[in-house]
Amino acid sequence: MLKQPQGLGAGADDGRLAQAEGLQQTITDREAEIVKIIKESLTKEQRLELGLMLLRQNLVSLTAVEAVDFQWSAAVLELNMNKPQRELAGGALQAITDAVKSRKEDHEDLLECSERCLRSADTEHRESEENLNHLIQELEAACSAALAEDYELMNKLKAVLTPQQQMCFLAWILGVKGPADFHRVWSPRVAALHRSPLGRYLPSFEVLTAKQVDAISTLLQSHSSTFAEAVRDLTTAAQAVCAAQGDAIPDAVAALFAKRDAVTAVDRAGLEALCQHFKLAQRGEVAAVRARLLLPSSSENDAAFPWWNAAVSEAALSDEQVAAIDAKLAELRALQDSLQPKLEPVEAGLPNGAGLQQAISELQVAEVTFSTQRDKLEKQIVLLLEPAQQKIILQAALAPVSS
Q: What distance in Å separates the CA atoms of residue 134 and residue 184, rounded to the nearest whole number?
C-alpha cells in the first residue's frame, strides 16, 4: 500500500492537485500571450524562425526525461504502482513515444523547408511573400496541433495515477523532494530485494539506481512465486525419498533429481533476467559472487559436512564404491580448479578494468559448464549406490530440506 507523502493528507489531494494544475495552466496561458505579443512586432522571417524554434522545442519536450532522470526515477520508485497501473502507464508512455516519432517524420520536410528559407532570406533566392506566409501558417498550425496532442497524451498518462500519486510525482519533478528524501524511499525497497530468492546476486559495490530497483522489483514479483513453487516441489520430493521403501526408492530419487533441476533452471532464468538490468561492473560482481558460491572456501573441510562420514558408515559402502566415489570427487575438484582461473580476471578487473566484458563472458560460460558437469557428477555418485544406500546418503544430505 502506498504511503502518503509527508505533509499531504488524502482528503486534500484533489484540491492541492487542482491548485497545481491551475497554476500550470496559468503559466501556459501567459506564455501563449507573450508569444502572441512578440509575433506582432516580428518580421516574417523572424516569425518563421520563432515558429521553427517552437516546433523543435516541442519535438524534444516529451522526450526530455533524461534531463530529470533522478527525479523521474525516484518518483516512479515511490509511487510503487500496481500491475494494472504499470500496464496502463506503459501504454500511455508508448503512445507518447510513438507520437513524437511520428511527429518528427511528418514534420521533417516542413523543418527542412523552413531552415532553407531562413538561410536564403538575404539572397536573391529568397521565397516569395506568398510562399513565406504559407510556410509560417503551416509552422504555427503544426505547433498548435502538437500542443493539443501533447495535452491529450499527458492527460491519459495522468489518468493512470491517483491524485495522491500525482501529487507525489509533482513533488519530485518540481524539486519539493530531493536527494535528502531519496534514501527513505530507496532503502526499504532494496532491503526487500535482498530478502528475495535472487537477493544474494544483488551488487554491493555499485549500488542500484532508483530505475534499477523499480525494474528489478517488478521482475521479482513473478520470479519469486515461480521459485517458491519450485522449492515446494523439491521439498515434497525430498520428503518422498525419505518415506520411500524398497523398489519405490529409485523412482523417488529420479523425481528428486528432476525437481532439483527445475529449481536450478528457475534460479538461472531469474539471474539472466536480473543481469539485463545491470551495468557492466554490476554484472561482473554478480558473476564473481556466483562463481565464489560454487567454489569451496580455503578453510572448508570435512567439518563443513558433519553428516557425510556418519552417513557413509551407515550405508556400509564397499571398497569398490568408495574408490569409484573418490574418483568422481577428484573429477569435481578438477572442475573447481578449472573455474578458478576464469574468476580471477573478473575480480582483478572490477569495476572498470580493460577486458572486463570479455572476462565476464568467459566466466559465465565456464560457470554454466561447471554447474552442468557438477550436477552430472553428483547424480553419477548417487547412482553408484544401491537404492537403500541412496536413501541413507540422501536422507542425511536432505535433512534441512525435508524437515
A: 55
Mind giving me the DSSP string for 47-87? HHHHHHHHHHHHHHHTT-GGGGHHHHHHHHHHH---HHHHH
| Exposure b/e, 269-294, CB count within 10 A at least 16 = b | ebbeebeebbeebbbbbbbbebbeee
How far apart CA 165 and CA 352 sit, in angstroms, is: 38
Query: Long-range CB contacts (< 8 A, 24+ apart) of 375-379?
Result: 375/260, 375/261, 375/264, 377/328, 377/331, 377/332, 377/335, 379/257
Contact between residue 59 and residue 107 where contact means Cβ atoms under 8 Å apart: yes
Q: Kindly tell me if the per-residue pLDDT of 42 is higher than 70.
A: yes
Q: How many CB atoms are closer than 10 A to CB 363?
A: 23
In the DSSP assignment, the letter for residue 11 is: G
As a whole number, the mean pLDDT across the chain is: 84
Is the bond into 351 cis (omega within 30 degrees of 0)? yes
Burial degree of 211 (CB within 10 A; 0-12, 13-18, 19+)? middle
Task: Give dist(CA 126, CA 121) in Å, integer.
Answer: 5
In the block, cell 516512479 appears at 76
pLDDT at 300 over 60: no
Grid coordinates of 111: 523543418
pLDDT-derived band of residue 9, with 50, 70 and 90 as boundaries? very low
Closest CA to 131 of 75, 48, 211, 187: 48
